[in-house]
Each structure stands twice: as structure tokens, then as C-alpha cells.
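Ticket opened by: R.M.
Priority: normal
Category: complex prediction / small molecule

The reporter submitted a protein together with fe (ii) ion and asked that the result be attached to this ticket for the collaborator who will pick it up next week. Submitted input follows.
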Amino acid sequence: MHYKLDILAEKGYVVLGDYDGKPIPSTEWESLEYMDWKSGGDTNFAPLASATGAMECRGFWDSGKADKFGVWTSNAAIAPGLIHYVEEIGGNYGRVRVIKLSPSDEPTALRQLHRDDNNRLNPDGTGWVVRSWLELDDTPGQSVFILREDKDDPATETRIRLHPGIQVVIDTERLWHVVWHPGPRPRYALITSWESDALIDNWIREHAASRRQLLEAVS
Ligand SMILES: [Fe+2]
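Result attached by the on-call engineer:
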């Protein structure tokens, strides 16, 4: 058994308000070194923290580790604002990466619905690993996070409309998920694996979206 966050128990996700900290210039994610790594569509990933600090996207289990205690890669020096964002939250992060998602149509996106393997090698009695998203750049109003409890049952679906700055925390080992991004430009987002603990619980509660933000985002 792992420690899990009560705030994720009912739905498996929480929408946070927009990031209102130090602005992160787009030159940061545009300058990163991306690797060809397919997950959830036509994607490339820029690793900011990996299991060993090497520039690679593989699961931490390949290094004998749970998805925690990430080590900054050489990309980190290019993106001080993104690193600051993660370090300011202050929790135990594992994988930290920027995703670059190419546009697709809706049926193609739905075929990419998947669950993540976040907790392999995660010792019992420690915190369940969940993931946060910070949307960096897309075509505002165009991309949507599609979440399902049951992959084949659209009645279990939630859609979260995305825009730059929105933050979302998702138990992606529980929920099937994909982002449908119609484009035309690529979509960039910062994805961070977090160990569930009191600190992350507090961060989520402090930044939970207002009712108005929720009504705008969730359908
Ligand atoms: Fe995923």
C-alpha cells in the first residue's frame, strides 16, 4: 500500500489555477534538446530530470529506481525558469520533462489513450507517484486533456480545456489519458512526476482552481 492524496481520491485529477509565479520565457522550452520518444501521440520529449542525470527518457526502473529523486540533466542549465518552477514547489520529483506534441485529429488522439507506469519499484509505505502538468504554449482554446476511468467508456470521460499557464495534477496510473491538440502549432507542456506527500497535498490545496476557472475548464 502507498500513501495517496485524499484530494485525488474521488476523480483522480485536480485542476489548479494558472501559474502566477515568475514568468518563464518561451526561449527556455524552444532551446531545449528534444529526443524522439513516442508517448501519447506524435511526441518529442526534452528531459530536464532523469534517473541518473543522463539525457534519456527511459523509465527510472531501468536504473533500479522508483520515479522519484530525479537528477537534473544538461538541459536544466538552459531552462532556469522551468527548474525554478519545480524546485519552488519543493516536493520529491522524479521525471521532469517538456513534451512537444504535434497536432492530430480527435480519433487519432483517442487511439493514444493510455495509463502511465508511475509506480514500478515504488516501495510500499511510501508516496504514490502522480504527475503535474504546466501548459507552456499551445493554440489557446484548442487543446484538451481527455481523461477516462474506463478506456472504452466515454461516459467516464472528463475533458479539461487547456491554455498556457493552466496546471493540472493527475493520477495517470489510474486514469486513461491523452491530450488532443488540433494545432496548428506544436503544444508544449512541463510534466513532472511527484511523490504524494503532505507538501504536494498542500501545494495542490493552495492552488486549486476557483469555481469559475473550473467551470471554464472542465466538461
Ligand atoms: Fe501518459
